[in-house]
Amino acid sequence: MDRLGIFGILVLLAVGSIGIVNAQSVKPVQDIVYTAKFVCGSIMDSDGPLRPGHYETSIDILNNKGYKVNIVWSAVINDGPTSNAILKNLEPENSTGISCRDIKGVFGIDTKEMLEGFVLIKVPVSSLKGFDNEQVIPDLSQDASKILDVHVFYSANALETLPHEIAVEKISFYIIQDGNHKIPKESFRKLLDVNVPIKLNDVLDVQETVRSFIATKYSLDKNDLDKIVLRIKDTSISVSTMLDDHAVSLHVVQPRMAS
Question: What is the fold, at CATH topology level, of the domain defined by 165-241?
């Protein structure tokens, strides 16, 4: 056999061996995995890692296929434990959600402490079954991102309570006399106003409210207040909505293949 023939055989053997190695190294896809970041709880001081506020995460999962999809989810706390896996069955074109309550629940946490970490949502490829329970083998190069829609909704609120209506009573009054000489003269017999937050349907002692305001503003004690003569002109109540220091964001999770 000439040298050219021997060289050709060696090339064929080399190509064949590479093909065998590649075939052995390529492992079938076992799971389609979605990884969602979560932030849950409250930060009451400036020590971080985020600004003070109340943080919530909601993970929404939609099965947009025409067959049932089994999902297995677990949570991992940063520098902490991993939860047990939770199995859920999603019927065709149905959805489910994972909230901070669910995440804290799998760890047995019922406080407002801050938790950060990740939720792993796995779709076992072997669990994909059609209407007749036949195995569904999706074209993973095209269909992987179409099996589930996973959206993560984050919200943060720097206020102690949710926005709500508050009532404010405006009291207009005059200072007629000051036997202490502690109140500036320019405030005498001049129409003054004080705004007081109140609860709806509360009964307010207007005279005492104004006297308390004056005592605080001018550092007066009880004896000083006895020498103050006031006249209330009128009162009015207004209702407004408490300011909302609230932020939201939405993230769409892309899948990855796990062997």
Answer: Ubiquitin-like (UB roll) (3.10.20)
Give CA 28 to chain center in angstroms: 36
Q: 65 with 92: CB under 8 angstroms?
A: yes
Contact indicator for 15, 21 with CB cutoff of 8 Å? no
Torsion angle (degrees, nearest 10) of CA 37, 43, 45, 46 = 20
Q: What is the CATH number of domain 28-161+246-258?
A: 2.60.290.11
Compute the average pLDDT of residues 81-88: 94
Q: Where are the domains of the chain?
A: 28-161+246-258, 165-241
* pLDDT one-digit tens code per residue, 175-199: 998 888 888 888 888 899 998 888 7
Is 229 a residue whose pLDDT tops 50? yes
Q: What share of the chain is helix, strand, coil (3-state, %, to 5)?
A: 25, 45, 35
| pLDDT at residue 25 is higher than 80 | no
Q: Is 213 in contact with 206 (CB distance < 8 Å)?
A: no
